[in-house]
Amino acid sequence: MTEEEGGRPVRVVVADDQTVVREGIVMLLGLLPGIEVVGAAGDGEEAVKLVAELSPDVVLMDLRMPRCDGVEATRRIRSEHPGTQVVVLTTYADDESLFPALKAGARGYLTKDAGGDEIVRAVRSVLSGDAGLSPSIQRRLLERLSEPERQTAAPAEPPDGLTARETEVLVLIADGLTNQEIARRLHVSTATVKTHINNLFAKTGLKDRAGAVRYAYANGLVRPPSR
Description:
With 227 residues, the protein is α/β, with parallel strands linked by helices. It has helices at residues 19-30, 44-54, 70-80, 95-104, 116-127, 135-146, 164-174, 179-186, 190-204, 209-218; strands at residues 10-15, 35-41, 58-61, 85-90, 108-111, 132-133. Helix 4 links the parallel strand 4 and strand 5 (108-111).
């Protein structure tokens, strides 16, 4: 990788709550030309503090960490220290991880099976103003953009305190999808889908999927197909 103007290497902070993983990433980065690891954090709160103290060029950010997760840490860093870019480096590539991280301001997103060359490319890309996304993440974004829009009319506030994800699961139930099909559509596990269904049933007092379909139509979450 080419060093920044003036010969200065790219200054990086690594944030990951697993000590072995964090130390491994630091060791890997130490072998890459043009990169200098200036700090390592065990959670998002510590990452925000290190950015304030060290003003790194890039943070390699894990997502699921205690005290302050990677999404919130990314949001704070991009708000308070806009000169620092964030590249997510995580085990998870599901929609519930990917899209919140990008909305929070992450410019790159890699999974932890990425090699050194891929990390270097992502770091170089975000510093030049481009997105540093792994090929699998790029494919997921394209798939999401190409998915046909459903006939939905969700109210400004979902009924009965449903979360956005619970509402989405409810709409897919109304579309006739099985738990397995919903899991594939949302890129989550079937167990996660079941958890969302149990939560939305508890909030709405619903007993079965037929009731969920009626509820979705009654609350304007889906529209009957046009004839």
